[in-house]
Amino acid sequence: MAKTKRRYLMLKVVCLLLGLCSALAASGGSSTSVVPEYRIRLYHTHTNERLDIVYRRGNVYLPEALERLNHYLRDYRTGDEHQYDPHVFDLLHELTSSLGRPDAEIDVVCGYRTPRTNEFLRSRSVHTGVARHSLHMQAKAIDIRLPGVPTAELRDAALELHRGGVGYYHASDFVHVDVGRVRRW
């Protein structure tokens, strides 16, 4: 009888270990911690495209997601793409989270701009806020709105993060954020 009990206990231990090994393999080797996912939801006001994407897991940026984001944030006037600084996406994620709206869809007014598009916009009197050396040309900036959040509140939240430049365009109803040096206008 004792021998049967030992076999039964041994079998339970083996099953338990196999279950743990399976779970460990499925989790990619992480034994107890859950790897956080970083997601952003975007709506492009000029192309009417939407994108809901996990761009990072833990400390690892997902190359396929970054490629999709580069395409999504292309210069919509020319179709040219540029490799975006992924810290811009971290900034957007942190910004929506700081406003208590981590799942909010962000309206994108402007992403990447080619130097030619940037110069075109600078030459038009309506676009007096276009910098000659804009970080949009380096894919380190984005102009946004957050539906349901006044742009002044969005600006203030971005300023509190101290993560880069923040421009407030009240008349055009958007906020510029970038991952350059900390500054405001």
Description:
The protein has helices at residues 2-26, 63-72, 87-98, 115-123, 151-161, and strands at residues 37-44, 50-57, 60-61, 105-110, 141-145, 165-169, 174-178, 183-184. By secondary structure, it is of the alpha+beta class. An eight-stranded mixed sheet has the order 3-2-1-4-5-7-6-8. The protein starts with a helix and ends with a strand. Residues 7-25 have low confidence and may be disordered.
Helix content: 25-40%
Compute the number of helices: 5
Mean pLDDT: 86
Beta-strand percentage range? 15-25%
| Radius of gyration from CA coordinates | 23 Å
Shape: globular
Indicate the low-confidence ranges by residue numbers.
7-25
Order of helices and strands: HEEEHHEHEHEEE
Distance between the termini: 82 Å
Major pleated sheet? 8 strands, mixed
Number of strands: 8
Class per helix and strand makeup: alpha+beta
Report strand order across the widest sheet. Answer: 3-2-1-4-5-7-6-8
Summed up, what is this model?
The chain is α+β, with helices and mostly antiparallel strands and 185 residues long. It has helices at 2-26, 63-72, 87-98, 115-123, 151-161, and strands at residues 37-44, 50-57, 60-61, 105-110, 141-145, 165-169, 174-178, 183-184. The N and C termini lie far apart (82 Å).
Overview features:
5 helices, alpha+beta, eight-stranded mixed beta sheet
SSE diagram, text form:
Blueprint: H1 2-26, E1 37-44, E2 50-57, E3 60-61, H2 63-72, H3 87-98, E4 105-110, H4 115-123, E5 141-145, H5 151-161, E6 165-169, E7 174-178, E8 183-184
Parallel strand pairs: 1-4, 6-8
Antiparallel strand pairs: 1-2, 2-3, 4-5, 5-7, 6-7
